[in-house]
Write a structure and sequence with these properties.
single chain, alpha+beta, four-stranded antiparallel beta sheet, 6 helices
Length: 302
């Protein structure tokens, strides 16, 4: 199988005629770094299938092609034959379901078995020259939807969208105890706890963090809630709910009750964004996993 190369094509219309290619590509969000890589690392810029440089002045009807250099998979991420639950795939991106118990990327404690390992293995099968460009990450024991770019430029565009709050994720969780308010917003800064390399806490001088929550159902031992984030700090939902006095069930790091579930009861159920190339609105959802749905069904019987 011949490995694929990421390529973008445009047919130049009257409104773009007369522009230099470098200006046109800047408007298309192709970074200076990307142009340098294209020039020096085996990429190509072509007009009507003839190679040109970025000072070429475009003419209406020209077919402009940008062929990106081949990517080299990260040496630190070994491809593995791990099944992927793919919710959507095209030439630019993937949307997948990550189960609880799987790292998003390898760690010192878990160097194999991660979503990144699975992606590199999958790319080898389909002949895609790329490393694992994961846009949205989840903690090891959080289940749900993860957005992945297939190429460096797609990652660049999606990351910029995420920074602007244009990639919306919705979570479901079981918070210990009964929340009094039906909905609320937690706007408290989060920083690393001084005596831990893992644990975070609400603290003065931490990074701004904002979490919105809404009650779905109340049960005897927990409240079933939906959450949306304005920011994406490490452990944000877990820290904010613990700060409220309602740590997530199973979250022993932040004081949660572990009698019903052995991992934090947190699931990314929905993602919404505009496709970075077509502009189409993309919405994907996935139901509660079995461990959380079983707890909920049992609670509804009482």
């Amino acid at each position: 199988m011949t490995p694929s190369r990421f390529q973008l094509n445009w047919v130049i219309d009257d409104s773009d005629a007369g522009q230099l290619i470098k200006d046109f590509l800047k408007n298309e969000e192709i970074s200076r770094t990307a142009l340098t890589d294209i020039k020096f690392k085996g990429g190509s810029i072509q007009v009507n299938k003839e190679e040109v440089n970025v000072r070429y002045k475009l003419i209406a009807g020209d077919v402009l092609s940008v062929i990106f250099p081949a990517e080299q998979p990260s040496e630190g991420v070994q491809g593995e034959d791990i099944p992927l639950t793919i919710l959507f795939e095209d030439e630019y991106l993937l949307v997948v379901f990550k189960p609880a118990g799987m790292n998003t990327i390898p760690s010192r404690e878990h160097p194999t078995g991660s979503l990144a390992n699975a992606l590199v293995g999958y790319y080898g099968i389909i002949g895609l020259e790329a490393t694992s460009h994961i846009v949205t990450r989840l903690d090891r024991d959080t289940s749900g939807i993860v957005l992945i770019a297939k190429h460096r430029h797609a990652h660049h565009l999606l990351s910029k969208m995420q920074q602007k709050g244009q990639v919306k994720r919705t979570y479901e969780a079981f918070a210990g105890g009964l929340l009094a308010a039906d909905y609320g917003t937690i706007e408290e800064p989060i920083g690393r706890k001084e005596d831990s390399i893992i644990e975070r806490e609400v603290r003065e001088g931490g990074q701004y963090a904002c979490t919105h929550y809404q009650v779905i159902e109340r049960h005897r031992l927990f409240t079933y809630i939906e959450l949306q984030l304005e920011t994406g700090r490490t452990h944000q939902i877990r820290v904010h709910m613990s700060y409220l006095g309602h740590p997530l069930l199973g979250d022993d790091l932040y004081g949660g009750d572990v009698s019903l579930i052995g991992r934090q009861a947190l699931h990314c159920k929905k993602i919404k964004f505009k496709h970075p190339f077509s502009g189409e609105e993309m919405i994907f959802t996935t139901p509660l996993p079995l461990d959380m749905s079983a707890i909920l069904e049992a609670a509804r019987l009482f």
